[in-house]
Write a structure and sequence with these properties.
The chain has 355 residues and is an alpha/beta fold. The protein is built from twelve helices and 15 strands. The strands form three sheets. It has an eight-stranded parallel β-sheet. The chain starts with 5 loop residues before the first strand and ends in a 5-residue tail after the last helix. It binds iron/sulfur cluster (SF4).
Length: 355
Amino acid sequence: MASQRSVNVGGVQIGGGAPVVVQTMTKTETANLQATMDQIRRVAEAGADIVRVAVPREKDIEALKTIVVESPIPVIADIHFNHTLALKAIDAGAHCIRLNPGNIGGPDKVAEVAARARAAGTPMRIGVNSGSLPKHLAELEFENPVEALVTAGVEFVELMERLDFTDFKVSIKSTNVPNTIAANRLLSERIPYPLHLGITEAGTKWSGSLKSAVGLGTLLADGIGDTIRISLSTFHAEEEVKVAWEILKALKLRERGPVLIACPTCGRLQFDMDSVVAEVERRLEAYDDPIEVSVLGCAVNGIGEARHADFGITGAKDMGMIYSKGEPIKKVATEQLVDELFIEIDKYYAAGRTV
Ligand code: SF4
């Protein structure tokens, strides 16, 4: 179920019925200010609502002071092992602190960070990954890894509540997709706090995107999850943001930019559809509206799809038909299909119409 509570990360509401928030994490050394700011600007441009930066060293704190001021989107400081860095990150103005209360040096240190965060009005993300469960749950992890994850999450929540700190979101992440789904379903029934979803160490762009789409998509379709991060082994954090958006768009949870519908092709295809789809996708990047464009290889499904889409192409041998708002408007030679499609799209916008 959707979280009842919400947190506000630098002006971005997470939970409490707000749209699912897209986040990512920079892959640069945070202290390398130029590289980190370049990457933050790229992920913001790609649609990240908030961004996380790793803060493992003192010099990262120095950079963080500038980053929180210059970043176009709110910044979360990711801290492990060293509670002093957490205190300093709060003082540096981080919009949120990510903390694993199990690895920060004991309850006293967690209490100190919670007190500083409360005084500063800084929210936190608390939680645990399957690889860093508390030691006392080792046996349970062996017997029931889902229950172990949920227990760790609930124990951390109860610890924070005892400290009178409730301004947080929670994440329990696993590399195992079914476990992530089962654990978050259970956790969402046990706590009212916003949930951060992710498949930890998901893998490469290809396999990691699919694992994340299956795991996060299943939960999001059930209304579980308030913010998502796609973890991919790529140096381009903006790729993670693009995948996150595709998941949210596929589930109709949020809209951003055009939606391209294209058939998989089959033996009925009689033109070079690969190049046509690639070119349509490339040119659509220049449009901000959630315009729907279909490219279908033949008339079998092409006419029906074109009726639903805002614009469409149905191919045939040497010629293709262009549709606008469900109406066939032009038959053109295959090599002119893309140009003519975009002439129609631009005409539509020039007439002041919107999707
Ligand atoms: Fe095949 Fe036509 Fe369907 Fe494309 S639209 S997959 S070419 S039948």
